[in-house]
Amino acid sequence: MNRRSFLKTIGSAGAFLLAGDSAPARSLFVLGVEDSSRISDIEWVLYETGRQQPDSQPERRCAVRVTGASGVQGWADFTGSTMPDRAGIELIRSIVLGRSTAEHNAIWRQLYEQSVPLGVLAAVDVALWDLRGRLEGKPTHALLGTRRQDVPVYASTGFNLGDPEAYAAYAVTCKEKGVPACKVQPYVGSPDRDIAVYKAVRDAVGPDYPCMAGGSRTYTFDEALRVGRLLDDLAYRWYESPMPEDDGWRDRYASLAAQVRTPICTPAANPDSYPARVLWIAAKACDIACMDALHGGLTACIELASACEAAGIPLELPNIGLDSYPHLQLIAATAPSLIEYFEFPSSSREPYVLPGRTTPEPTCDEHGRVTIPQTPGMGIELDWRYIFTHRVA
Fold it and tell me: Rounded to two decimals, what is the model's pTM?
């Protein structure tokens, strides 16, 4: 099934969530933008940051720059995998150039239906949102309707951190530093060891400190159920992605959600964008929906947030490291009851500026909260001299 027919299919499968052309609840899409600016150019720059990836290969980033007819520019900076090939560049330019920025939602939908890879679509979408904010002289969240100025964070342990005592020590450090919550990401494929970790963490931080159970998506249903019932007893806040997340597992997730009290947070890694997750919500396969901005950009996250709001369930935006500014923009336009936390990559408060940027990465204050950017657009400024100097031919 292609994406165009998939979008039509969800119209009946998730009718109680989707209303109208694209958004189920317009509270997150009330754009008072009367902009007639035409998009005159879009360009991509693949560059090296000078850092190394975990596999020792050079880290590459992809900067996207969209120019309006007035000369105002918007941009995005994502992982190097979002760099389109030549055919993709030609397709995107044929759809985007000459269009009004006021057609943003229709542009997203057309790119999605043309099967543009979701990461590539995400970078283009974020650059368009950045352009719209800069044209209006407002942060992107103000275009959606700002509802809050900061958000509490939680830190994540990372997978395979060590023995249960190492996990417990990490969680205790988070608590002592004032980090409001901790997500425990377990071993990969070892439910018995995970059980020992979850118990050790709860014993170490006490009954009231919020803990979440991350997931490696490797359990069988019986393993997931056994661990889930333990998490019920340990009062974890949610249970994330314990089993594989392709659509063939959706019914098993619905069964798991019906049998454990701990809210099931999924599907983080389903390869499609928000339409697939609407079907999971309709099937009651998740108590908390989950998706990051790399699955289609800010527009996709807005659509899913609206679906969650209509269904009365929360949304989790998992950490995507250096690409998380769109998450902060959406969080600012939502209530804490919809998106409670911002996932922070570590418990450190040291500011850091990534090569290729002039804006530091988000940091949390002594109360464990991140302040939402208030500058026009996405809140991130790029060092274009560095980017072009380190461009990959």
Answer: 0.91
- What is the rounded (10 degree) CA torsion for 56, 291, 260, 185? 20
Would 359 be classed as within a structural domain? yes
Q: Do residues 314 and 369 share a domain?
A: yes
The tens digit of pLDDT for each residue in 330-381 reads: 999 999 999 999 998 666 677 789 899 999 988 889 899 999 999 999 999 9
Q: Are 78 and 126 in contact (CB under 8 A)?
A: yes
What CATH number is given to the structural domain containing 69? 3.30.390.10
Distance CA 309, CA 287 (A): 12
Strands 315-316 and 342-344: unpaired
38 belongs to a structural domain: yes
Provide φ and ψ at 170, rounded to 5°: -60, -45
Whether 48 and 69 map to the same domain: the answer is: yes
CB hemisphere CA count around 284 (13 angstroms): 7
Residues 218 and 334 in one domain: yes
| Distance set, CA 306 to CA 88, 122, 141 (Å) | 29, 18, 15
Structure tokens at 172: 């205790």
C-alpha torsion 168→170→173→174, nearest 10: -110
Q: Which domain holds residue 37?
A: 31-137
Distance of CA 364 to the CA centre of its chain: 18
